[in-house]
Design a protein that fits this description.
The chain folds into 2 domains: 146 residues, Ferritin, CATH 1.20.1260; 266 residues, Rossmann fold (3-Layer(aba) Sandwich). It has 17 helices and 11 strands. The chain is globular. This is site-specific DNA-methyltransferase (adenine-specific).
Amino acid sequence: MYENAFNKIERDLRAEEGIANELDYVEQTSWVLFLKYLADLESERADAAELEGKEYAPIIDGDFRWHKWAAPKVNGEFDHNSARIGDDLITFVDRELFPYLAAFRQSATSPQTIEYKIGEVFTELRNKFRSGYILRDVLEQVDGLAFNTQAQRHELSELYETRIKRMGNAGRNGGEYYTPRPLIRAMIKVTDPKIGETIYDGACGSAGFLCEAYGHLRTNDLSASAYETLQTRTLYGQEKKGLAYIIGIMNMVLHGIEAPNLIHSNTLNENVMDIQEKDRHDIILANPPFGGGERREVQQNFPIRTGETAYLFLQHFIRKLKAGGRAAVVIKNTFLSNTDNASIALRKELLEAAELHTVLDCPQGTFQGAGVKTVVLFFEKGAPTRDIWYYQLDPGRSLGKTNPLNDDDLAEFVELQRTRDTGEKSWIVNRTDLDEETCDLSVKNPNAPEAEALRSPEDIIADMLERDAETAQILEDIRGML
């Protein structure tokens, strides 16, 4: 129903000189969608208050309300006479609307409120529209979108996810903004979160893990109290980058989470030795950024000091888990075998502090645009590792933009992981069989069919000469027939 509207918005944005690429497209679409969502949310709350005979105090007031500046109407019809347009619209957005909304950050009672989220979003963002005529067209398209039903939100979330995926592939590391959803769903199935448990992603990006976890837990038979728990006390995330934070907020909102528990901060600024029990979570699902080269003062927050961002995040996650908590974390496969001191120390810490029970080896091309191979580490906090079940994912084809990972590719992994069966793609390594000095965890499949031995150069040359002789004879026979 909304595909045509999104396509029309995209065509409008291509004509806007202030918007240059897919990242700008998603960013600028996000703030307009967010304000329309807030308008619909306020309308719902006002109606509910009226039914209960109560007064409703709107979050956004006066000339800043959607129906005042974005979509003024008379008798249900758009009022072109009173609608701001051209330079007047851009001036209002830049000098009045954005400063008004950014001020919510200071006036909000706590970071968990929707008011604080509004302030954070509009503190980070700036309006990139230069043409008030193009912005007017976009506003009218977005005004036609509704967030009132689950079906409407689902369709909007699907369209928004498609744009996030394209943004993740827009000449950047594909894993920076977008983790393939089939991989996320498999990680969730293995960790198996339940209502009442908390789920955390300290590098949440576009909040794909939290959105998929919400979809996994939101069943039709949830009680009102369970639904309230899911909405407000289940999903937690932190994100350093402003654009990713905004997209994550919008993505969660579109998936039906009214006031996402996302915090805009650098997770690695927290000293891991200061993490207390009240700060810990039952489930951790994450794909932390690789590389990065963190500054020396950030490294001081960790017992194993390294510039590799993913290694710092892994230390954070180990300490952020409750006793008995479960985690699934994507990391470069080189972590399993690197011989530098930080890699060896971190492998030893992981094996001692948690039970690393499963390693999923992902094929090349799992992450579009990423030049590295990855693995997923599944571990449980508490007892040390005894044995590790490996699974080498092989979809039987080359993965790429036109042939991405799908749920069927991971179905066997999810099924076999429950029983830890061994076969051509899976095997078990005992902790006692690891090298005590290096704790090398490399993926070395002992059950894979042996590759045929390569022929010697002498055999290859002899075969080539034999074929050349056959070709010469055939050509002589043809000459004789002419």
